[in-house]
Design goal:
Layout (H helix, E strand, L loop, with lengths): L6 H14 L7 E5 L1 H13 L6 E5 L2 H7 L4 E6 L2 E8 L4 E2 L11 H18 L1 H15 L3 H21 L15 H10 L8 H18 L5 H13 L11 H8 L11 E7 L2 E6 L3 H11 L8
Parallel strand pairs: 1-2, 2-5
Antiparallel strand pairs: 3-4, 6-7
Helix pairs in contact: 1-2, 3-4, 3-6, 4-5, 4-6, 4-8, 5-6, 7-8, 7-10, 8-9, 8-11, 10-11
Length: about 300
């Protein structure tokens, strides 16, 4: 059963905690994947204006990405993560053994976010994933420990410089997320694409915008697309409407001063935050991911 980060579920959990909370010291433990972590973290942030909470992520995506950073939120029907807060857990424990029973789709979803970290700030990590993708897909413990630790360090380092996303530094973590979130919204959070799958599609779209804008070379784009595809991740959203994705992306939280804002790769290991991408370029990228061809695939 898919757990959705709905506001009514959040209120239900708060009511349950309040009934339990009689002369007790409440601590919320988020034991699960990214959705559970976001939901539990938001409940902890708003109940009594904040109670302690701990993250015990059980998916690769949560261990490498979502459990770290302090962004917690719930979704509205109209868009993803529109009701949220910044609230840091007291502790994050990433136990690799939790991943041993993950289904393949969940593993691939986590790898999508780890590839993101290689592109935004660590060419060495990207190269490691290229060489060890089959080990990662087979849940090789040493390979997983390496990429989870490396991804966690990258995210923690970025967050430490811009915890509340006010300086523009933290924005680099959103590579692939502008169109990726729009893909999720366009599906109505039906599970057609998991978060990691949607982010993979979003990275492919961002790459096309970067190539079209003269920021990313064809060969570098080819390596990224090849690795996403080699990990079994989608780079197309053929079952969705391009118009629907475009409309959904207009509600993205990352827009600023009435302008769109995209994280675009310059090369593997370096990205640039760009504002005011022409509508024509965005629509072309979305049309491509909805059925056209992307260079390198």
């Amino acid at each position: 059963m898919q757990i959705l980060k709905k506001v009514n579920l959040c209120i239900d959990l708060i009511n349950r905690i309040a009934k339990y909370d009689k002369m007790k010291r409440v601590c919320v433990i988020a034991f699960g994947g990214g959705v559970v972590g976001d939901l539990a973290g938001f409940v902890a942030a708003v109940y009594k204006r904040g109670v302690p909470y701990v993250q015990l992520p059980t998916t690769l995506l949560a261990q490498a990405d979502s459990a770290i950073g302090g962004k917690v939120a719930v979704d509205l029907k109209i868009g993803k993560n529109l009701v949220g807060a910044f609230y840091q857990p007291g502790l994050v424990i990433s136990e690799i053994d939790f991943l041993s029973t993950l289904p393949g789709r969940q593993v691939r979803a986590g790898i999508a976010e780890i590839i993101k970290y290689g592109v935004i700030g660590d060419a060495g990590l990207f190269g490691f994933i290229e060489k060890n993708i089959q080990k990662l897909l087979r849940l090789d413990k040493k390979a997983l420990e390496f990429v989870v630790e490396r991804s966690s360090r990258i995210k923690a380092s970025v967050v430490a410089k811009d915890e509340r996303d006010t300086l523009g530094i933290r924005a680099v973590l959103n590579y692939g997320h502008t169109i990726g979130h729009a893909v999720e919204t366009a599906t109505g959070y039906s599970g057609t694409y998991s978060h990691g799958e949607a982010i993979s599609i979003g990275m492919a779209a961002a790459n096309h915008i970067a190539v079209e804008s003269g920021l990313l070379s064809g060969p570098q784009n080819t390596r990224i697309i090849k690795l996403l595809s080699g990990a079994g991740l989608p780079v197309f959203a053929k079952r969705l409407s391009a118009a629907g994705i475009y409309a959904a992306h207009l509600r993205d939280k990352k827009f600023i001063h009435g302008k769109n804002r995209f994280v675009l790769p310059i090369k593997i290991g370096k990205v640039k935050v760009v504002e005011g991408i022409p509508e024509k370029t965005i629509r072309k990228a979305i049309n491509l991911i909805c059925g056209g061809r992307i260079d390198g695939h």
